[in-house]
Amino acid sequence: MSTRRDAFLRFALLAVITGGFLFPLAWTGLASLGVVPDNSSRPPSWTGPATLEHFAEIGLAEPTFWQELATSTAAAVVAACLAVAVGFPAAFALARSRRRGSRTLTQGFLVLASLPVMAYVIPLSDISRRLHLIDTLAGVTLSEAAVTAPLAVFVLHGALVQLPTDWEEAAVMDGAGLVRILVRVVLPLVTPSVAATLVVMFVLDWNMLLVPLVLTSGDVKTIPVALSDFFTFERELDWPTAAAALLVSLAPLALLVALFHRALESFALQAPGSRDIG
To answer: What is the reported pTM?
Structure first.
């Protein structure tokens, strides 16, 4: 009886927490259909017939929205891949380093990842200007990768430091070089962690506002910048259309999670500390 009651309480608590997280998304979904709260009535009620017309109005409110969606997707995918590609060998070097300062250096990457984005924007804007990358897709992509790379190093280090070194030592005895060890031995063992890190990096790059806002002047625009245009004083705010644009912008994120859900499940089953260092 007590076990059944505890299970029910856990389920109820999980339902409340999940509902709290999903409530803003549900509100946005209703608004995208034209169903908005009427605060003038007592008690407040929902007004407006449900319609899909506001999704068709996205292109009228923001004519380049679909181009911006493609730009954001391309920039976030490439930036996430670059951050992981750079962070993976760096994390491996730190995980296998025997020097005393390696732990401090690893914590330093966490400090770098915790810095406000503005700390990166000022030097990155100067470098981009010198390299003629201002208001270009390459400039935005490289800058986003530079901002998220320290976090990729720290997260991947946590996965790599748990791996035993037996397989790596056997590969060295067989004459394998560093690149072969990383690609053929280490990477398959931490694929779930790498996939999860890619997803996290993509989400961070996708939601990044300040970097593309400062490094572009209109020729290249990402979704966060485009959505912020709905809330400027230069245009009348149309809540249903803005909500519809927000829901459409979530499609790449939902697709990414659907593609990587198996790897994410495997990553969730590997609790930190489940493996000892060889």
So the answer is: 0.80
Supply 95's token pair. Answer: 């995980």
* Closest among 210, 2, 180 to 116, alpha carbons compared: 210
Q: Is 270 exposed, middle or buried (0-12, 13-18, 19+ CB in 10 A)?
A: middle
Mean pLDDT score of the chain: 82
The rounded distance, in Å, linking the Cα atoms of 167 and 163 is 9
Question: What are the backbone angles phi and psi of residue 257, rounded to the nearest 5°?
Answer: -65, -35
Domains along the chain with CATH numbers: 2-51 (no CATH), 61-269 (1.10.3720.10)
Please say whether the beta carbons of 214 and 144 come within 8 A: no
The residues pairing with 46 across neighbouring beta strands, listed in sequence order, are 37
pLDDT tens per residue, range 164-187: 888 888 888 888 888 888 888 899
Residue 89 CB contacts under 8 Å (≥ 6 apart), including other chains? 182
